[in-house]
TrEMBL record, chain A:
GO terms for cellular component: mitochondrial inner membrane. Keywords: Membrane, NAD, Transmembrane, Transmembrane helix. It is a multi-pass membrane protein. It is found in: Membrane; Mitochondrion inner membrane. This is NADH-ubiquinone oxidoreductase chain 1. PANTHER family: NADH DEHYDROGENASE SUBUNIT 1, NADH-UBIQUINONE OXIDOREDUCTASE CHAIN 1. Its main location: membrane. Pfam families: NADHdh.
Automatic annotation (TrEMBL), chain B:
It comes from Penicillium egyptiacum. It is found in: Mitochondrion membrane. GO terms for molecular function: NADH dehydrogenase (ubiquinone) activity. The keyword RNA-binding does not apply. Pfam families: Oxidored_q4. The lineage of its organism: Eukaryota, Fungi, Dikarya, Ascomycota, Pezizomycotina. This is NADH-ubiquinone oxidoreductase chain 3.
């Protein structure tokens, strides 16, 4: 039996993911526009905030073009596989201590499998993927050697003392470059080389098939940013040194109010930490 | 049914719904020019997009896949590295040795050499 709670949980997980994908696309277009001294999308909604939804609706009502020489089934199933696997990765993300959908003890392996399947394309894309997947998994090996566990929550909790970026800074650089290459971003975008090929493997896809590719690409960007922040920046752990601040307040200023302490503790343990770290990384990706 | 299994079902259903919305609501009137392969400027030739490529590229890709699998095979050792101690390390080293020897053999056999029709040095003619 499907219980109502599980339906709600699934929707609670997938709707914010899709929303964040939409807003990441707007953010990218806005930043690119300001780099090129354009305005960017600014007509739909305030400050162009609803542009992504308008685009998605428009693309859903467009005509689909299936080339005569393509394998029709593969042509439609390929983008769907891409989308499905890039969204499946959100299943094992822990958002806060105690807030997670599933607590796999093999979470890291699941994440690797899903993220490696989630990209598909022509010969170029395959070549790039296969080679950079190696880097990602060999960096993750070293982190697992430190934590001794494949569970993502354990990995995050073992960073309570110090985030892994401090002892493993060179590894972070390697992992970051690998993840940029994995998501086909700017210096590594030979799968979708905009200057030589028109849009790479997405040229002949139109309408909702194109939407699938688009969603999948940005969903996998967000997912890999979350993975970066989980592995190296301590995931949902607090950014602000709460105990330190409380100590200063108590010892220097002589303030000892439990209300203040409550507020700080509430701030320190919220999913906003993960969101903040991920947002920073996404900004670097753009 | 737990949330996990429900989630595994939810996402493919979401994809299928999006696809069906498009297939039902959108107009569809193809003609030959629209359905032909996308190419700039001229009519595309039939069957041009199924060209053959050299088998050595495939061998290269296979090699990468092999080493990816190798790393996945190390994962169980890495998780239990603290309890396995020196014995596990020895076994891992033997494993690596076999793989490295295989790779060196492949290199020595010139299996990874991609044949090129380009002439690099115009002075020396082979």
């Amino acid at each position: 039996m499907i219980s109502i709670i599980s339906i709600i949980e699934g929707l609670l997980l997938i709707v914010p993911a899709l929303l964040s994908v939409a807003f990441v696309t707007i953010a990218e277009r806005k930043t690119m526009a300001s780099m090129q001294r354009r305005l960017g999308p600014n007509a739909v909604g305030y400050y162009g905030l609803l542009q992504a939804f308008a685009d998605a609706l428009k693309l859903l009502l467009k005509e689909y073009v299936a080339p005569t020489q393509a394998n029709i089934i593969l042509f439609f199933i390929g983008p769907m596989i891409t989308l499905i696997f890039s969204l499946l990765g959100y299943l094992v993300v822990p958002f806060d201590s105690g807030i997670f959908v599933s607590d796999y003890s093999l979470g890291m392996l699941y994440m690797l499998a899903v993220s490696s399947l989630s990209t598909y394309g022509s010969l170029r894309s395959t070549a790039q993927l296969i080679s950079y997947e190696l880097i990602l998994s060999s960096v993750i090996i070293l982190i697992i050697l430190l934590t001794g566990n494949l569970n993502i929550i354990t990995i995050v909790e073992s960073q309570r003392i110090v985030d892994f970026i401090l002892p493993l800074f060179p590894l972070f650089i390697i992992f970051f470059i690998g993840s940029i290459a994995e998501t086909n971003r700017a210096p590594f975008d030979l799968a979708e080389a905009e200057s030589e090929l028109v849009s790479g493997f997405m040229t002949e896809h139109s309408a909702s098939v194109f939407v699938f590719f688009f969603l999948a690409e940005y969903a996998s960007i967000i997912l890999i940013c979350i993975l970066n922040s989980i592995l190296f920046f301590g995931g949902y752990l607090c950014i602000i040194p709460v105990e330190f601040i409380i100590d200063i307040l108590y010892n220097i200023f002589g303030i000892n109010s439990s209300i203040l302490e409550d507020i700080f503790v509430n701030i320190s343990s919220s999913p906003l930490n993960l969101a903040f770290k991920t947002a920073l990384l996404i900004f670097v990706f753009i | 049914m737990t949330t996990t299994t429900f989630f595994l079902f939810l996402i493919p259903v979401l994809g299928i719904i999006l696809l069906l919305v498009n297939l039902i609501l959108s107009p569809h009137n193809p003609y030959q020019e629209k359905d032909s392969a996308f190419e700039c400027g001229f009519h595309s030739f039939l069957g041009q997009n199924r060209t053959q490529f050299s088998i050595s590229f495939f061998i290269f890709a296979l090699l990468f896949l092999l080493f990816d699998l190798e790393i996945l095979l190390i994962y169980p050792y890495v998780v239990s590295a603290y309890t396995n101690g020196i014995y596990g390390l020895l076994i891992m080293i033997v494993f690596f040795l076999v793989l490295t020897l295989g790779f060196a053999f492949e290199l020595g056999k010139n299996a990874l050499k991609i044949e090129s029709r380009q002439v690099f040095n115009f002075n020396i003619k082979s």
